[in-house]
Amino acid sequence: MVIGGYNPGRCYFEENTNLTEEQLGENFAQQISQVGFNEFLATATEREKKKLFKYMKSGNKRGYNNPFVIFDESCVSNSTTIAYDKNAANEATKLVKNFFISTFASNGL
To answer: Smallest Cα–Cα separation from 55: which of 79, 35, 28, 78?
Structure first.
């Protein structure tokens, strides 16, 4: 199944605690930026910075706290593919069961 919409699934992100309220607006929640963001800031023109931060501030002002700061949308797609994978589901179930068994067994519960 293919679902339309904004999908940053091919982007790489990293924690960025250098982001400020001045840059992103009041009550910002962003602590994650696209890999290379600090390098982008170092070389971006004032116009590029203003455009990016204006977009982020407007979202925060409306209460939309996107946790990601994306400066290069070449990794973003306009759709998401969703499909059930029986083998992956079975593996995930097994891993969760093993986690709980080992956690509770080691604690004597």
So the answer is: 28
C-alpha angle with apex 87: 79 to 8, nearest 5 degrees?
Answer: 20
Interatomic CA distance for residues 28 and 56, integer angstroms? 9
Residues in the chain: 109
Q: What is the pTM of this model?
A: 0.56
Q: What is the DSSP letter of 67?
A: S
3-state SS record for 25-77: CCCCCCCEEECCHHHHHHHCCHHHHHHHHHHHHHHHHCCCCCCEECCCHHHCE
Q: Please say whether the beta carbons of 34 and 72 come within 8 A.
A: yes
Kind plus residue range of the DSSP H or E element containing 103 = helix 86-106
pLDDT digits (tens, 9 = 90+) for 11-62: 899 988 888 888 887 777 777 888 999 899 899 999 998 988 888 888 777 7
Q: How many CB atoms lie within 10 A of CB 18?
A: 11
